[in-house]
């Protein structure tokens, strides 16, 4: 739902010539070979499914993502349609009912394993962030490190979700405060932090006993798929439903559906203030909960001797 530059998103027909029946080859240029190595290290290809709810699928548009610095096509992701999202939310609800019964420290152990799995892939995942979003490589790797750091925090939190024992006016009685999971948390993240924002939301949501449904920005769909693949392997190795970390790649239509759907108990949105206002109102209309991270204040100074075309891109 966040505004993105149209140059980085290219809807294509499934099975079009560009995809040779749904699968394209990598470029043979040096840049293309670098991209190929990076994607393969993350279990990605030139064409990827963008819906995950325990199994991979997708019936929406096929969208190319492009390196904003060079214009190189990095790959493509088949987005979710309305039916895909509906199925994913149903699976997430089922997973959440099971997950809430798992003791919090054991939920923390699963997040610890996710943290380790992310650390093992920090270099190729950081490279993908740099390629797809346009950050310098140290910033791309640093963003993955942010996810790792919040996972460390979440693991500790899993043993500190304490309630209170409150005195009662009735003799022989006391009141007990207990924190309960919400259910399903929807995360709508922006293109500028395609890993960290999801990580902040996901790690905390999981240790608190919630399932997570993620819609990243269409221009960074490859990163969304790569992160989800890493998490899915951890869940599968623990015999847990993959729908705990669901993915529904898509555009504004998918974001709007998440905001309106009563099955999503909390919506965490990161993006522009105008869009965030619409999301907040949609969630409030159904008496849902929301977290809004809106706007930005990062200025860029461009000197007269700069390459203006490159700076604008």
Task: Produce the secondary structure layout.
Blueprint: E1 9-12, H1 30-41, E2 47-49, E3 51-52, E4 56-57, E5 62-66, E6 73-78, H2 82-99, H3 104-120, H4 122-133, H5 137-157, E7 165-167, E8 174-176, E9 184-188, H6 196-207, E10 211-215, H7 221-237, E11 245-248, H8 252-260, E12 266-271, H9 273-285, E13 289-294, H10 308-312
Helix pairs in contact: 1-4, 3-5, 3-7, 4-5, 4-7, 5-6, 8-9
Rg value? 20 Å
Chain-averaged pLDDT: 90
Portion in strands: 15-25%
Q: Separation of termini?
A: 21 Å
The biggest beta sheet is recorded as: 7 strands, mixed
Q: Strands of the biggest beta sheet: in what spatial order?
A: 4-3-11-10-9-12-13
Which of globular, elongated, flat, extended, rod-shaped describes the shape? globular
Low-confidence spans: pLDDT under 50, at least 5 residues?
1-10, 13-24
Q: What is the β-strand count?
A: 13
Helix count equals 10
Which assembly state applies to the chains in this document? Answer: single chain
One letter per element, helices H and strands E, the order comes to EHEEEEEHHHHEEEHEHEHEHEH
Helix content: 40-55%
Q: What is the SS-derived class? A: alpha/beta
Q: What would a concise description of this structure say?
A:
This protein has 313 residues and is an alpha/beta fold. The chain contains ten helices and 13 strands.
């Amino acid at each position: 739902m966040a505004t993105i530059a149209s140059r980085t998103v290219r809807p294509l027909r499934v099975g079009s010539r560009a995809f040779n029946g749904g699968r394209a080859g990598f470029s043979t240029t040096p840049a293309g070979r670098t991209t190929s190595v990076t994607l393969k290290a993350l279990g990605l290809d030139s064409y990827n499914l963008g819906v995950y709810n325990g199994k991979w699928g997708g019936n929406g548009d096929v969208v190319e993502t492009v390196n904003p610095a060079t214009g190189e096509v990095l790959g493509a992701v088949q987005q979710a349609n309305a039916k895909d999202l509906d199925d994913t939310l149903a699976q997430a609800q089922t997973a959440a009912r099971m997950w809430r019964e798992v003791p919090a420290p054991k939920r923390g152990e699963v997040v610890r394993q996710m943290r380790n799995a992310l650390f093992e892939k920090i270099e190729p995942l950081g490279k993908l962030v740099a390629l797809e979003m346009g950050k310098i490589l140290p910033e791309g790797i640093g963003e993955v490190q942010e996810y790792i750091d919040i996972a460390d925090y979440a693991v500790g939190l899993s043993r500190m979700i304490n309630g209170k024992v409150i005195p009662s006016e009735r003799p022989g009685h006391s009141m007990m405060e207990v924190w309960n999971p919400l259910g399903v948390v929807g995360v709508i993240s922006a293109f500028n932090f395609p890993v960290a924002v999801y990580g902040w939301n996901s790690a905390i949501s999981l240790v608190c006993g919630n399932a997570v449904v993620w819609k990243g920005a269409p221009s960074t769909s490859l990163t969304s798929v790569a992160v989800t693949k890493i998490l899915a392997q951890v869940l599968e190795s623990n015999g847990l439903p993959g729908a705990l970390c669901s993915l529904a790649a898509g555009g504004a239509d998918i974001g709007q559906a998440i905001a309106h759907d009563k099955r999503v108990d909390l919506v965490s949105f990161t993006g522009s203030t105008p869009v965030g206002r619409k999301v907040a109102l949609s969630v409030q209309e159904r008496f849902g909960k929301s977290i809004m991270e809106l706007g930005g204040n990062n200025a860029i100074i461009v000197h007269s001797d700069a390459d203006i075309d490159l700076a604008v891109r």
